[in-house]
Amino acid sequence: MKKQILKKLLVLLCLPIISFNVMATLTHGSIKGTAVGLYDQYNEGTINLASVRAGKTCDFKVVTIGNKSWGLTNLTGTTIQGNGWSSQLRYWGGAGFTAKTENWLQARIPSTNYTLGTTTATIPLPLQLSFLQEISSNEFTETQRVDYDVTAKNSAVMGDVAAPVISSCTATNVTGTSATLNITGSDNLSDLFYYVTGNGITEVLFLSANTISGLTPSTAYNLTVTPIDFSGNEGTPTNVQFKTTPQVAFTADNLVGFPVMTVTFTNTTTNAESYEWNFGDGSPISTATNPVHAYQNPGTYTVTLTATNTTVGVTSSLVKTNYITVNEKPTLPVGELLYGGNMENANFWLVDYLNTASGSYPASTWNNTANVPAAGAGGCLYVNSAGGSNAIQYAIYQKVSLIAGHVYEFNGAFKDFTTNLSNFWCEVFIGSQPAGGGADYGGGQTQIAKFDIWGTYTGNRIDGTFKLNANNFTTYTASATEDKYFVAKMGTWWGSGYQIAMDNLSLKDLSLTTSVTDSKFDNYTISTSNNMIHIENVQAIVSLFDISGRKIQSVNSNGTYSSKKLNAGLYIVSIDGVSIKVSLK
Asked: What's the pTM?
């Protein structure tokens, strides 16, 4: 068998190079091998000529134009192996042909044993080539080396004078950066390749369906496809035209949270001029480039961005299915009105900068564990602002539902990290929603707590509860049963910057009867071990959330509840509508 294969190769490579009726003058080298034997490979290119693999062969085609080569292999009697590559074109040059250049053929054709690849490595002269093939996991074989003249048609067929013909050529699966050319031509896959040029492209294609990558989004392409056989006969070129689409891409800063959940979308689309956003919640289409959207209700939402390039006349859409998840808010402890008062998750809060010049906004970090008040627990909200001549404000707010005649009290942990804090205030209000867009907080509100420093404060940094440190503190009595907004804002005017931490913000209803308490957890023994949360003597539905509000588990427990294995962190446990925070270390 080995002699037959070698004889076939010798006949193939020793045929005279004859070309008839050449219709063009493309200078190229080409070589092909059919049913080429595979031998044991070892020592980086040495093969054992006595170890030809029975029933396992390799067909190959190589075309060289200038300093670039295109290679195709097709295995018979075995299958493609390997994760990163499975076929390798090797160029051999230098004294004794001992120097090799390896070129991986990494593009695999689905449902076949074909691999494709290109190389722009320096081509040695004189030149030999071989193919390394992986025929099972970490089992490598290699063909014999054959001489290859990159200026000649090494695989010419005596008497082959017929020019190949393209009967059809279309472009499908067009994206922003790729397109598939579908070509029907004579001698397809046996003695034919296609030379593609235009729009800066120079490619050789071997198959009937070929994906061209690396295209420019939103571009009109007009490509010329020329059929050429390995004897050098060139057929009549044909043209194929198509337009690539915009390359649509976007990200979001918030994927899971609670209503109202504000999401900032960052548009990274290229080569587009206008946009339409469908947020998936029935809200109006947005034409903003980088929109900010507030999801009002729990649910899972699919987001679609459609981008258009009007100059070229192309449109493309990217659909991210079930991209945004808005969870039901966990039940608050009895009497508490504020969600997210542990300041470990921004999803509960709306944020504004209230009359602060753009570019001067303070930096804020939620769930900050490096700078925390002594009276806090877990992470906190840390706001870091530079000083300046203008008001530099930061405000957080959320809707609260009040009952007529009930009395409400605010409290929270508060710590100043600023050196020489000056001309600073922190105020808490019950009232209307801030206007947003940078407007200062106007009328229609009642201040219930205020802490401020005018001049410069050089004493010990303040670290305590807001109620105790506030120089103006009152409770709030609701005049009607209605929804209002809790607003906490801070700022400086003609003073220093400020580095302030807040934690455990609470707005309590003091008018509830003492029989209605959140003492249910006093009846249970809660412990943690082996990365789990355990609750003893519970006969109820136990729901477990992470601190972002993503539901982890919900079970009907009868006796002892043990959670799934968890990572270290803070979790919310809810039993029959009452919630508590549990720290797992």
From this structure: 0.63
The answer to whether residues 422 and 360 belong to one domain is yes
- Look at 303-312, 322-331, 469-478, 507-516 and tell me which has the smallest mean pLDDT: 507-516
Element (H, E) at 76: strand 68-76
Question: What is the residue-wise DSSP string for 188-231?
Answer: TTTSEEEEEEETTEEEEE-SSEEEEE-PPSS-EEEEEEEEEETT
pLDDT over 90 (residue 175): yes
Sheet with 261-267, side-by-side order of all strands: 250-252, 261-267, 292-295
Residue 316 lies in a domain: yes
Cross-strand pairs, 540: 557
Q: Which of 533, 529, 514, 513 is nearest to 580 (CA)?
A: 533
Q: Which domain holds residue 488?
A: 346-509
Helix, strand, or coil here: 515? coil
CATH of the domain at 305: 2.60.40.10
Whether residue 437 is found in the same domain as residue 411 = yes
Q: CA-CA distance, 275 to 294, in Å (whole number)? A: 19
Number of domains comprising the chain: 5
> Out of 21-35, 214-228, 426-440, 496-510, which region has the weakest mean confidence (pLDDT)?
21-35
Looking only at the bridges linking them, the beta strands covering 299-309 and 363-368 are unpaired
